[in-house]
Amino acid sequence: MTLVVDVFPARQDNFGYLAHDTATGRTAAIDAPEAAPIRQALAHRGWKLTDIFITHHHADHTEAIPELKSAFSAIVTGPRAEAGKIAGLDTLIDPGDVVELGESRFEVIATPGHTLGHVTYHERAGGHLFTGDALFSLGCGRMFEGEPGPMWEGLKRLRALPDATLVYCGHEYTAANARFALSVDPQNDALLTRAAEVTALREAGKPTIPATLGIEKAANPFLRADAPLFARLYGLEGADPAEVFAALRKAKDGF
Known about the structure:
CATH architecture: 4-Layer Sandwich
CATH class: Alpha Beta
Helix content: 25-40%
Number of domains: 1
Low-confidence stretches: none
Mean pLDDT: 98
Strand order of the largest sheet: 1-2-3-4-5-6
């Protein structure tokens, strides 16, 4: 059993993903940002779309559901907590559920904050993590709907996964995220190395994704909000790490 992941651009700065279970041929689009690039990727690979897994309700992750569902009769799976905001869902899921794609199994992880019902899909056997807009490489999503405490707890759930896990996020924001990360953590060798890698990838016209979770744990400030240096940076020594996370997120919003 093997899961193959195809990565391609969509919209202005979204990533599109196809997850293909080689044992059965079932193929899922992870989110549905734009129909044409997904169709092109399917045709290039010779795969048929059977499923769509949705992380959250924002239009740039759901807009192509009607066209793809009509064209391929794909089964659309998404968070029960956001069912009222996502048209076309067939299967409702909750954190802790397991979603099957042929022989591949995806654990559903609660990652609220960007939206209240945001979920992440973790395929443990192959080490694939689809984070939507909860976690980006060197960054995290804006807190549009949630609160710092629950969002920080969600990021800690992701941080607890194995270092070798490959992170597939919703947008190509890595270069901008690197600039902010360097502004708050300029002496971090892992961050300096990752930032240089990101610059080289972007100059070569290549995506910065996937990134290993181990690198993110070392370099992404939003996964390190409990590191003492950030509490000192914002004068929050002794505060709950969720407060430090909130300060980091506020600083990034205004960066």
